[in-house]
Amino acid sequence: MGERLDIPLPSGTFDLAVVLVGVSHPGNLGAICRSMLNYGFDDLRLVAPKCTTSDDETRARAKHASRVLENAREFSDIEQATKDCSAVIGTSGKRELGRKTLNRHFLYPWDMVERISNSGGTVALVFGEEGKGLSVDDLAKCDYYVTLPTWEGYPIANLSHAVTAILYEIQRSRVINHQGDEPGLPDIVPLLSTLQPSVRESLIKAIEQLSGQTGKSPEHRLSVEQTIKRTLLKGTPSDEEATRIIGAFVEATSALEYARNDPRWQKEHRRKLR
Length: 274
Fold this sequence. Notes:
alpha/beta, Alpha/beta knot, 2 domains, 7-stranded parallel sheet, 11 helices
C-alpha cells in the first residue's frame, strides 16, 4: 500500500515546474515531493535552498517519491529557475484589500487553472520560504499571482499544504477533462452518471410495483411512489446502482405479495419484474 505503480505521468497542454524559493524545512521539502508525485508532477526546482535533498527527514517524508528529489535542480535565483518557462505564477497568502490592490492582483487556483489550461510550454509555480513567503522583489518577477481561499483571520497556509492544494486543483481539471484518455489518467470513477432509458424504465416500474404493496389508500400509495421516484432519480444513479436497486425492490415486492397471499405471487412463485 502506498507504493508507486510503473505507469506514465499524466500529460497535459502544459508542463508544470514547482519552484521553491529558500525552502528551509526538510519535512516540508519531502512532503512536497510526495504531493507532486501524488498528482502526477515531478519537475522540482530549488532556488537557494536552506536544506538538502539528501536530508534523512526529507527522504522519509518523500516516501516513494524519491525520484522527485533525485531529479530536483538547484538555481541561484528565480530568473534562472524559470528561464525556460512560458508563464511564471507567484503564490502568496498576504493579500491586499480595497484600495491596496494596485500591486497584487490575485487569482484563485481554479481561475489560474482556466487561464493556463491552453498556455502550452512550461508553467512555473513559485512558492516562498516558510514563514516569509515570496518577497516583493520575488513577486515582481512573476506574471501574476494565485492565492488560496483561506479564512482571512488566519490566511497563511503551511508551505507543503499550499503546494498540495494548488496541485490538486490542476489535477482535478485534468481528470475532469481527460480521464480515461491515457494510462496516466485511468477511468477510475465514472464522471457521468446517466441511466440507460431501458434501465430507467425498469426502475420506475419496480418503484410502482413496490409502492402498490404499501399504504392503505390509493392516495398514500401514490405519495410513496412519487417520493421514492424523486429521491432516487434526482440522485442520478448509475446503471449498475439502479440495477441493484431494482433487484432489491423486486425482492421486497415479492415478499409483500407472499405475506399477503397475493394471487400474483401464488401464480408466479418467483422474483421478477413484471
